[in-house]
Amino acid sequence: MPRLEERWWSCPCSPGVKPGSESGRLPSKAAEAMSAVSSVLRGLRAAGLVRRGLVLFTVGVLLALVLNLLQTPRNVSLFPEEVVAPLFSSAWWIPPCCGTAAAFVGLLYPCIDSHLGEPHKFKREWASVMRCIAVFVGINHASAKLDFANNVQLSMTLAALSLGLWWTFDRSRSGFGLGITIAFFATLITQFLIYNGVYQYTSPDFLYIRSWLPCIFFSGGVTVGNIGRQLAMGGTEKPHSD
Amino acid sequence: MTVREKLRQKISAGFYWHGLLCASYPVPIILFTAVCILTCCYPLLKLPLPGTGPVEFTTGVRDYMVPPQEPSGDPGERPDWYRGPPVAYIQQVLVKAAVSPWDNRLVPVDAFRSPLGRVFSLLDEIRNHVHSDSSGVRSLEALCLQVTDLLPGLRRMQALLPEHGCLLVSPGNYWQNQRELFDSDPDLLRTVQQYEPKGLHTSATLKDLLFGVHGKQTGVSLNSRNRVVTYTITMALRHYDVRFLGSLRSRLKQLHPSANCSLREEHMVHVHFKEEIGVAELIPLVTTYIILFAYIYFSTRKIDMVKSKWGLALAAVVTVLSSLLMSVGLCTLFGLTPTLNGGEIFPYLVVVIGLENVLVLTKSVVSTPVDLEVKLRIAQGLSNESWSIMKNMATELCIILIGYFTLVPAIQEFCLFAVVGLVSDFFLQMLFFTTVLSIDIRRMELADLNRRLPAEAGMPPAKPGPLRPRETPPPPRPSPHTITLQTPAFRNLRLPKRLRVVYFLARTRLAQRIIMAGTVIWIGILLYTDPAGLRTYLAAQVSEQSPLGGAGLPHLAVAPATPPPELDPMPPPIPQISWGPEDEEGWRRLSYRHWPSFFSYYNITLAKRYISILPVIPVTFHVTPREALETRHPQDTRHAPPLQTDPSPNALPHGAPVQTDLTLYKVAALGLAAGVLLVLLLFCLYRLLCPRNYGQNGVQHGRRRRGDLPCDDYGYSPPVSEISPLLLRGHNMDIECLASDGMLLASCCLAGQIRVWDAQTGDCLTVIPNHGRNQGKSSAVTDLETLGGAEGQDAGGAGYPVRRRAAPSRPTLFGDQPDLTALIDTSFGQQPPSQAPSASSGFDFGGLVERAYLEHEPSVSPVFSAPPPQPVQRRRSLGDQPMAPTDWDSAVWALELRGNLIAAGRSSGKLEVCLWDAVEGSLRCSNEDGVSGITALAFLNNRIVAARLNGSLDFFTVDINKPLGLLQYRGGPGRGSMPPSPCYSSDDVISCQLTRSVQCAHQKPITVLRAAAGRVVTGSQDHTVRVYRLEDSCCLFTLQGHSGGITAIYIDQTMVLASGGQDGAICLWDVLTGSRVSHVYGHRGDVTSLVCTTSCVISSGLDDLICIWDRSTGIKLYSIQQVLGCGASFGVISDSLLVTGGQGCVSFWDLNFGDLLQTVYLGASSEGQGVRQLVVLDNAAIVCDFGSELSLVYVPSVLEKLD
C-alpha cells in the first residue's frame, strides 16, 4: 500500500487562521468568535485536541486521495483498473486509515516534544509548514514521475531528499527518531498486509516498491509532525489577528 | 574562527555599502534591474508558449523527406518535435458536388442525395487505384495505416468506423460503404443526425469526422442555400509514397475535373500535438499550486510595519517570479533547453527559492532605529542580516549540488534551474527588493512626519478646565523610545483595504452595473448568434430585398409534380461550385481535437507526436437533375409537401428547427440558472460584507461632516444603527466628577452641585446642591442665585425626566450667571479652619420637609415673587443642612457611588457621605478629620479610602446601626461584575469612622487611588505606587519604576495592576509579588488613562493617542489618533469593543483589529464639544461628559452580546 503515508499533509485552511479571517469581515461577530475561541482554548483543552485531530484527519484523507492520483500513471496504484470495481468496497477504508494515522502522528509529535521538555522552536510558522508540505508532495512527485536507472538510485535519491526535508524543516532529534520509528512500523505493517494478501502491488517489481516506501513514510511522518506541532502551537497562542 | 570572523566582517561591510548605494540611487538601480530582467528573459521569446493547442510546421511537398530521427545540422527553422516519421499522413479528397442545373421539380432532399451517392463510386476508385512502375505495384492497402479494433468503449460506433483495415473514412461510412443501404435509406438526414451528441458539444463529432469538413460547410441540410454538398474522403497513410499519391491525384483530377480550381498544392502541414492533461494529473497539480499560494500567503502576511504591505508583498512575488523567468532564460541562452514540464516543476522551484530572504530583509530593516536616516537604516538592516543570508544561500547551494550528483537527468535539470534561479533571486533581492524597500521606508517616514506634526502642535496648553496641580501637564520630555515604538501607528486610522474595496463597490454599485451590462450583452449575442434568431432573420430580410435573392418570393415550385413554369418568371439558380483558398486547408476549421480524437478511437495517441497533412485533392461532381430524380427515394417526396407550403428556400423543415429550438431552450435555461445562481451568490456576499442596513437612516447622513471620520475619505460613511443618545441636562457648569455603580449615576459640576441620575432611564433623581454656599453673604445677587438653584432643584426633585425639553424652560437669567466662588479657592497650602466635630449623623428633617414641599408643588411659579425668607428657608430644608455652618466654600474633588451612598471628597478635606433616595439627597454623615484636600476616593464594600493632598491616606468604615442580616441587598443591574451593594434605608443611622490614617503614605500629593480585590493602590507624584491591603490598611509593596509622577492606575478583580506616569511609561506589575512584569514607553507626555482587558492594555496620553498594547509581550498593536482634548476619554465595553470620545460623537472600535465600527453623534448642541470623560456602565451604557451636559448612550447590540 504505497499510499498509506498520505496521512501526512496539512491543508492550508488550518483552523488557526479561520477566526481571524472571518472576524475581520464581520466585526460584530468577531467578538463572539474571539471570545468563543479563547474560552474554548482556555477552558477545554480536550476540545482543542479533538479539533486538531479533526484537522489532521481531514488533511490526511485529502492528501491520501491526491497522492494516490499522482501515482496512477506509474501503474503502481493500489487500485488497478480491473480490480477497482470489486475492490473498491475493500479499499474505501484506506483514506480514513491514512487520516487516522495522520491524526495520531500529528498529535504524537507535540506530545513527545512536551514530554521530552524540548519544545520545537525551529521555524515555527505556517509559511514554513506550507513549504514543508510542498517539498513532501515534490518528493512524491519525483518518486512517481521520474525515471530512475535502478532501484538503488531511486531509494538513495529519496533517502537523501527525505533527510534534506528533515534537516530543513525539523532538525530535532525527537523528530528524527519518531520519523524513523514511524517509517519502520508503517513499512512493517504494509508488508504484513501484503503477505496476508490483503493487498497486492500491481507492479511485479516487488523490490521497487519496498525500496522507496520507508523514505516516503519517513518524510510523511516529519511533515505531519510539523503540521501537528504548528497546530498545537497555534492553539496555545492567541489566534493571529491580521 | 578568525577567518570566519573576518569573512563575516567583510560580508557585513560589503552589504552595508551596498545598502547605502541602493538607498541613494533607487531609480537608476530599479531601471538597471528591469533592463537586466528583460535581457535575461529575451531568450524566452523563442520558447513555445505553454498550452495544449497544436503547433504547426509547414514544408514543401516537392522535396519532402521524412525527417531524420536525430536532430540534424540546421535546427534553425525546424521545431524540436519535427523528427522521425509522423504518426500518419493525412490525405483528404475534397468533394464538391451539386445538382446542376437546379430544376423546379426537385425537392430539397435531392440537393444532397445523389451528390452524396457519388461517394461510393469515388471510394471504389480510390481503393482500387493501383500504381505500378519499375519499383513495383502499389495500392492503397499497402500504404495506408492499418488499424485494429476500436476501443472497447466505442461499441456504438463499431458499425460506422472501419476496423481491421485501412483507416479510410467518408460519409459513406454512415451506410457501411454500401450503395444499397444508402439507396434504401428513407431519411438521410436522420441517419446523419442520429449519431450527433445531444446538447452542447465542443469537441469533434462523428459528423465532422466522417464528412471531414465543418458541419456547417457540408451543405447536407434541407435549407442549404447554394445546394452544394461538400465532403471529404479522409485516408490515413502509414508511408509516404510520392508516386502513388501523385498518380492518384492526377487520376481523380482527370476523372472529375474541377473547372475553376486553383488550389495550391505545394505545402504539407505538420501538426504537433501536446500532451493532454487528464483529471488524474490535474488534481495533484492543482494541489501543489494551492500549497504554493498558501505558502506565499503565509509568507507575505508576515511583512509588517511598512507603508504599503501589499506593495512589498507584490515586490517579493515579483522578485521570485522574475528570478525564475531569468533562470529559464539564462538556461536557454546557454543552450539548455527545458524538457521538464514547466507547469509541474514551477511550484517546487518557487518553494526551493523561497521568500524567506525577502522577509528577513524587511524585518531587519524595519527594526533598525527610526531616527536614523533612511539610507543608514537600509544599510544597517542589510549588514545585520548579511551573514545569515549568505549562510542560507551557501547551504541551499550545497543541497542543490548534492541533488545534482544523483545523476538522474530530471533531477539534474531541476537542480540546474534551481541554482540559476537562486543566484538570480539573490541578485534581484539585493538590487530590486532592497531598493523598493528603501522607497517604501522613505514614504512611511514622510507620512509619519506629516501625521505627527499637528499632534505635537496642539498638545498641552489647549486643555481646558480648572487649574489643578495634579493635572498640570509636565513639559513634554523627548524620549527616543516613544518614537521607535510608533512604527505601526496610524495604519489603523484608515479602514482596512478590504472594507474600502467593499465600500467602493457598494457606493458605485459596480457589481450590479457590470452584471447588468454583461447580461444585456450576453442576451444580445445570444439573440444574434442563435440559429433561429436574429441573424437568420436579418439574412432572410436581406436576401428578400436583394435582387439576387429574389428567388425567394413566389418562385418555388408549389408541388414537384405540377410545376407551373409560367409562375416562375426567373430561371432557376444554377448552383455554382467554386473553389477558393478557404478550401485549401478546410481541416483548419475543425476542432483542434479533431485529429487526436480520430486517432484515439483506435487507441493511438497523438500526444507529443505529429501528423502530416497533405494537400487536398479536389474533386467536383455535377449531377444532372435527371440523375437526381432517378436516385430519389420514394419517401423523399413525402417529406416535400410541408416544404412546398413555404416558398422561401430559408424555410426550415421540421427536423432541424426542432433540434435548434431545443438547444436554444437548453441554453436559455442554463443561462437563467447561472444568472439566478450568480445573483444569489452576490446577494449572499453582499449580506455578508455589508451586514447593516445603511439604506435607512438616510437623514442623519446629511449632518455628518467630512473629514471627521477616517472613512469619509472615500465618501462613504459607515451606517448608523439604532443607537440613540439620551441627553442629561441640569448642571449649570462643567461637570467635574462622574461616578456610577451601574444603576445610578452621580455627577458633580464645578459649582459643587451633585446630581444623581437613573442610569437606565436618564431621569434626574436627586439634586444635592452645594450646601451652605454663600451662607455668610446676604447680597441680593446671591439670593437670586440660590433661588435659581432652588428652582433648578424643583424641576429635578419633582422627578421630571430631565431631557431636552427641560433646558429651555429654565430661566436663563440665573443659569448664565453661575457663581464662580467655588473655583477661586485654589490655595491648597492654606489650611481651612478646623471645625469642631459636630454630630455627623444628626437629625434629618429632610424627609418631612420634602413631603411638605411636594404638596406645594403646584405653586412653583410664584417662587420668584416670594419674599426673600422663603427661598432661604426652603433652601435650607432642601439642603438638609441644619447643622453645617462650616466652610462650604470648597469644591468636590472626588466622588464615589456605591449602593445608594455617595461619598464626596472636598477640597477642604471634608468627607461627606450622602444617602441617596428617590426623593431625598440627604447628607448622612460627614467627617472632617482631615485637613488636607481629598484628591481621590475609593469606596469598596463598607470602606472608604481617601487620599489627601498632603500624601496621607485615610481609611474610613461606614457603619450602620442595624444588624447586617436585615440589610437588603440590592441586586445590581443584573449583569454587574460588582458585588451587590448593601441597600441602606433612610431610617438607618450611618456613621463614618476613621479607622486608620496613614500619615506619610507618600511624600507628595497622591494623585490616583484605585481599589479592587481587597487592595488599595495609590499613585503619587513622588514616582511611586503603593499597594495597601484594604482590611488592615497595611502597606504591602512600594513599587518603584517610574521616572515621573503617577498619573494613571488600573487594577481589577483579577489583580492586574498597571500604572502610567508623567514620563509616558506604562508599567505592568504583579500584585502578588510586587515585581514589574513589563515596562513600555508609550506616550509623549502623561499617561492619562489606563484600562486592561484580558489580552491587551489600552492607554491614552496627553498626546491624544490611544495605544493598544499586547499585554503579554508589551508590543504595541496599534494606536488611535484622538481628537484634540478628547485624549483621555475612552472605555472598554467588552473584551473586544472600545469606545472613544470625539468632537460631539463617540466611536466604537473593534479592539482586536483596530477597525472603526461605528460613530454615534450625540445631538446637535454637543457637536462642537469634545467628550472629556467617558464612563462605561455595567449595562453597556456609556456616559459621556460634554461640558455641562451628560449623554447616556445605550449600546443594544453590545447588550445582547454580554448575555
TrEMBL record, chain B:
Gene Ontology cellular component list = endoplasmic reticulum membrane; ER to Golgi transport vesicle membrane; Golgi membrane; SREBP-SCAP complex
- Tell me the ranges covered by the SSD domain, including all copies: 281-439
Q: Where is the composition biased (Pro residues)?
A: 461-479
Q: Which UniProt keywords apply?
A: Cholesterol metabolism, Cytoplasmic vesicle, Endoplasmic reticulum, Glycoprotein, Golgi apparatus, Lipid metabolism, Lipid-binding, Membrane, Repeat, Steroid metabolism, Sterol metabolism, Transmembrane, Transmembrane helix, WD repeat
Tell me any Pfam family this protein matches.
SCAP_N
What membrane topology is given? Answer: Multi-pass membrane protein
Q: Which Gene3D superfamilies match?
A: YVTN repeat-like/Quinoprotein amine dehydrogenase
Q: Which domain of life is it from?
A: Eukaryota
Q: Where in the cell is it found?
A: Cytoplasmic vesicle, COPII-coated vesicle membrane; Endoplasmic reticulum membrane; Golgi apparatus membrane
Q: Where, by residue number, does the polypeptide cross the bilayer?
A: 20-45, 277-298, 310-336, 348-372, 393-411, 510-528, 667-689
- An annotated Gene Ontology molecular function: sterol binding
Q: Where does each WD repeat begin and end?
A: 1039-1079
Kindly list the biological process annotations in GO that this record carries.
cholesterol metabolic process; regulation of cholesterol biosynthetic process; SREBP signaling pathway
InterPro entries linked: Beta-prop_SCAP, HMGCR/SNAP/NPC1-like_SSD, Quinoprotein_ADH-like_sf, SCAP, SCAP_N, SSD, WD40/YVTN_repeat-like_dom_sf, WD40_repeat_CS
Q: Where is this region: Disordered?
A: 455-484, 629-655, 859-883
List the PANTHER family: STEROL REGULATORY ELEMENT-BINDING PROTEIN CLEAVAGE-ACTIVATING PROTEIN
Free-text function comment from the UniProt entry: Escort protein required for cholesterol as well as lipid homeostasis. Regulates export of the SCAP-SREBP complex from the endoplasmic reticulum to the Golgi upon low cholesterol, thereby regulating the processing of sterol regulatory element-binding proteins (SREBPs) SREBF1/SREBP1 and SREBF2/SREBP2. At high sterol concentrations, formation of a ternary complex with INSIG (INSIG1 or INSIG2) leads to mask the ER export signal in SCAP, promoting retention of the complex in the endoplasmic reticulum.
Protein name, per record: Sterol regulatory element-binding protein cleavage-activating protein
This chain's source organism reads Scleropages formosus (Asian bonytongue)
| Higher taxonomy | Eukaryota, Metazoa, Chordata, Craniata, Vertebrata
